Structures are given as C-alpha cells and as structure tokens.
C-alpha cells in the first residue's frame, strides 16, 4: 500500500511538475499576422497581371480585326480609309463656309459689247467689221485689250468663246411725225449674219488666222421683230503677244445688250 501511495503521490507530483513546467516555455506567437500582408500582396499582383494580360489580348485581337478589315475593304484612296469627313471638317473651324481659291488664278477675260450706238454703214453690209467691246463693264485678268482686240500676256492653252446677237425691226412711225417720211425700209429678206473669230499670231508677224466661223442666211419679215444669235468656242494654244478679235457681217444689226453679245477667253493651263 505504501508503494502504491508513493506512486500516486509521485504521479500527482509529476502532473503538477508537468503543469508547472509548461509555464516555463514562452507562448509561441501566431504566424497569421506575418503572412496576411504577403498573401494580400500576392493576390494584388496576380490581379494586375490578369488585367494586363486581358488588355494585351484585347489589343491584339483589335489590331488583327482592323488588318482583316483593311485587307478585305475595296480599293480606295488612303485618305478615304484613314480619315473621316467629319474629322476633316472639324480640324479647322475657321475655314468652314469658305470657298477654296487657287493661289495663282489663271488669265481670263470677258468683254460685253459697248451699248453706245455705233454708226456701222448699211452699205456693203456683207463686209465683215470688227466689234468694239466694253472694258468698263467687263474685265481682263492677266490679259489686255486695245481697239477691239484681246491681247494675250501669258502663253498657254486657252478656251476662246464668242456670242453675237442680231436683231431688226421697223419702228412704226407716229401720225404727227414726218421723220419716217421718205425712209426706204432695208431689204432683209436675204440677210447673211456671219460671226468670225480671228487669231493674230506673233510668230507669223501678226498674220490673222481664222479660228472659228458660224452664221446663217436669214429671211426675215421687215414688218415685225426679228432676232438671231450665233455662238461658238474652242481651245487653242496662244503665245504671249498674240491677239484675238471678232468680226461680223451686218454689224449695224448687232444687239447692244451685254447678255446677248460678248467675247472672252479663259486660260486652261500651261
């Protein structure tokens, strides 16, 4: 029994010692606070890498689709493919609503007939007469004018045009006027109305060469209003110093309206 009691006491002592011995060791601090920031940092880096890879894949697919679209698109100018009309219009708002004008405009001229009455002889009406033009109500840009002739100041290829209108009517005499007494009406039953455009070439010592000719023989009624217009145009190479002019038959019948009888030239290129 003594042994048993001593063993029991030893067991109790050992238990107390063990319990007391456990307090000798310092408690181990938990490792959870140490690994938590590292875990969060790892997750953040992985998330950023995932986003970056997704963006890279999206950009790659977008570029591939754009290449396919451009390769399969119909052949068009590069400017039409790469730019949009709306973007072009918004690049410079100051220029909207303005017409483009060339830096150096081409030579040109337009001259209407002088509205002052000109005493063209009715005798020898078939003879061609040079028309005088109105500088005041016309214009000459890089071209000159002198005594019915349009002067070329720049060599180049020009478009020449001319239009002449003829009209005739016999005014009814007043009852109390004797001004029409003894006046014999002009015979216009077989009238030739011809328009000629001539070119004086400086290389040929200002020799005149006919460029154009048009007209008709009219059978008009002398008791009513009559009108006829002739119009023509063509391109021709002109040298500096050349001249152009218009001749007509029966010039005394010319219509003096500026909209009906005129002459001009436009330079198309060098």
Automatic annotation (TrEMBL):
Protein location: Membrane
UniProt entry keywords in alphabetical sequence: Cytokine, Membrane, Transmembrane, Transmembrane helix
Family annotation (SMART domains): TNF
PROSITE patterns, A to Z: THD_1, THD_2
Pfam families recorded: TNF
GO cellular-component term (any): extracellular space
GO BP annotations, alphabetical order: immune response; response to mechanical stimulus
Molecular function in Gene Ontology: cytokine activity; tumor necrosis factor receptor binding
Membrane-spanning intervals of the chain: 38-61
Domain THD positions: 107-268
Similarity comment: family membership: Belongs to the tumor necrosis factor family.
PANTHER family reported in the protein's UniProt record: TNF SUPERFAMILY MEMBER 11, TUMOR NECROSIS FACTOR FAMILY MEMBER
Record protein name field: TNF superfamily member 11
Organism field: Sander lucioperca
